[in-house]
Amino acid sequence: MTRQKTILTGLRVNNELTLGNFLGALLPMVRLANAHSADMHINIFVPDLHSIISEIDGELQQNLVTSLKYYLAAGLKINQNIHFYRQSRVPAHSELCWILNCIATMGELNRMTQYKDKSEGRESVNVGIFDYPVLMAADILLYDAEFVPVGEDQFQHLELTRRLGEKFNKRFGEIFVLPAEPRDQAKFMEVDGGIRIRDLQNPEKKMSKSSAAPNSRIMMNDAPEVAIKKIMSATTDSLAKIQFDMFNQPGISNLLQIEALVNDLPLQEVISTWAGENHYGDLKQKVATSVSTFLTDFQSKLAEIKDETIFELLENGEEYANSIANRKLTEVQQVFHLR
Ligand code: TYM
Questions:
Q1: What is the pLDDT of residues 90-131, one digit of tens each?
Q2: Handedness of CA 70, 73, 75, 79 (dihedral sign)
Q3: Helical (H) or strand (E) element with 43
Q4: In Å, how far from its chain's centre is CA 191?
Q5: How confident is the model at residue 289 (pLDDT cuts 50, 70, 90)?
Q6: Percent helix, percent strand, percent coil in the chain, to nearest 5
Q7: pLDDT-derived band at 13, boundaries 50, 70, 90
Q8: Comparing C-alpha atoms, which of 3, 322, 315, 338 is closest to residue 142?
Q9: Is the predicted pLDDT of residue 1 greater than 80, yes or no?
Q10: Is the CB of 12 under 6 A from ligand 1?
């Protein structure tokens, strides 16, 4: 009998989500889930232990429920193959993380650019920030997940996951199924090279909830008029040419990318529509309207979803996740003579 494959993703919650999280990871995951949930497992979890690497507010539980509602509001269709769970309720994640810590090297983790970015200029950095990618590897390897739809900023962590899994398998036998290479993940998601939505004020950087300037990011709970203002004040360039060129025109390219994703249009189609145009104001106006319509629609769908629906899904999902994860953990413990 062939094994039923698994698609898995996680979305950290500290506070509200950005449009970048939504378009880069959540929406592609929903599309994949709806296309494949008849014959694949779809694991959607909240990495709440990852959340506590940085300061959290008292709203973690409510934010966590809201973030799972986002999948439903984005159109996820529920069936018995969709599994929602919290990382902290499946202790095998932390356990496998420790075991993988004994395989990973300081050098491998030191190379992680996210760690470098997050620790830069800080006098003291917690070990959780350093070890973050190993816990992520455990999240993935426990379930033999082949497809892990994430934004382009997480590709390096996926590579590390493959590397740790491979090292483990070489030493102890074929215990883990490795996730596909990021290139193939992107192909599976049908996005060229992964998605990276840019910071509206500084389009060299990714849109991030940790960026200082509030008008650099669109939050999924922004009032539509606020989002319009943010788009209208986005940084562009002085080339007066509307074309997709992330290297020389990251601001304009970002707007084209957002326009395509919120309208569910192929990027190429949007690029062709604007080819030969040079009024940046017109493009901003169009994107602002698209984003505002998109947010209005999304927020009204979100308001209809009840907390109980999520708790019910979590109850079933956590039972499933514990059964799969514990089975894999036992295999791993056996090779270390821990059992
Ligand atoms: P997190 O919570 O920082 O981000 C969640 C997802 O959003 C994507 N993303 C973006 N995509 C495009 N443009 C952007 N500007 C942008 N900003 C964020 C991220 O790539 C991610 O897919 N380490 C993960 C959470 C995690 C995880 C896992 C994911 C923990 N364990 C196992 C998959 C599998 C993270 O911090 O994502």
A1: 999 999 999 999 999 999 999 999 999 888 888 899 999 999
A2: positive
A3: strand 41-46
A4: 14
A5: very high
A6: 55, 5, 40
A7: confident
A8: 322
A9: no
A10: yes
Instruction: Pinpoint the residues of the chain covered by CATH 1.10.240.10.
Output: 214-302
Report whether residue 197 contacts ligand 1, using a CB cutoff of 6 Å.
Answer: yes
Tell me: the pLDDT tens digits for 234-280? 999 999 999 999 999 999 999 999 999 999 999 999 999 999 999 99
Q: Is the pLDDT of residue 49 over 70?
A: yes
Alpha-carbon distances of 248 from 228, 237, 241, 252, rounded to whole Å: 25, 9, 11, 9
Which of 13, 153, 160 most suits a substitution to test ligand 1, by most atoms within 8 Å of the C-beta?
153
Residues with catalytic function: 118, 206, 209
Q: What's the CATH class of domain 214-302? A: mainly alpha
Band of the pLDDT at 3, cuts 50, 70, 90?
confident
3-state secondary structure 91-107: CHHHHHHHHHHCCCCHH
Q: Looking at the predicted structure, is the pLDDT value of residue 193 above 80?
A: no
Closest atom, ligand 1, to C-alpha of 50:
30
Q: Are 234 and 251 in contact (CB under 8 A)?
A: yes
Q: Which part of the chain is CATH 3.40.50.620?
A: 6-194+307-335
Residue carrying the six token digits 């830069």: 120
Q: Is 179 in the pocket of ligand 1 (CB under 6 A)?
A: no
Query: Angle, nearest 10°, between helix axes 92-101 and 307-335?
Result: 40
CATH number for the region 6-194+307-335 comes to 3.40.50.620
Q: Check if 194 has its Cβ closer than 6 Å to any atom of ligand 1.
A: no
CA of 303 to the centre of ligand 1 (A): 24
What lies within 8 Å, CB to CB, of 144 at 6+ separation is 3, 6, 176, 177, 328
Q: What is the CA radius of gyration of the chain?
A: 20
